[in-house]
Design goal:
Helix content: over 70%
Largest sheet: none
Strand content: under 5%
Shape: elongated
Mean pLDDT: 87
Number of strands: 0
Low-confidence stretches: none
Oligomer: single chain
Length: 72
C-alpha cells in the first residue's frame, strides 16, 4: 500500500487528486467543444463524451465539499 507525504495530510492528498481529475476533465471538455465541428460523423459521440466529462467534473467538485466538511 502506498503512503503519502503531504503537509496537509490525507485530506490534502485526496483534495489534490480530485482537483486534478476535475481539471483534466474540464480540459477534455473544452477540447471536445473546439474540435466537434471537425470530426464529422463522430460529433455526436464527442458531444456525449463532453457531457459525461462535465457531469463527472461536477460530481468530483461535490466530493470536494464532502472532504472539506470531513476535515473541518
Amino acid at each position: 500500500m502506498a503512503g503519502f507525504d503531504s503537509a496537509t495530510g490525507a485530506a490534502g492528498v485526496v483534495t489534490g487528486l480530485i482537483e486534478k481529475a476535475a481539471g483534466e476533465l474540464d480540459i477534455m471538455s473544452d477540447a471536445a467543444s473546439e474540435i466537434a465541428p471537425e470530426v464529422g460523423d463522430l460529433t455526436g459521440v464527442l458531444v456525449e463524451a463532453q457531457r459525461i466529462a462535465d457531469r463527472a467534473a461536477l460530481d468530483l467538485r461535490r466530493l470536494l465539499q464532502k472532504v472539506a466538511r470531513s476535515a473541518a
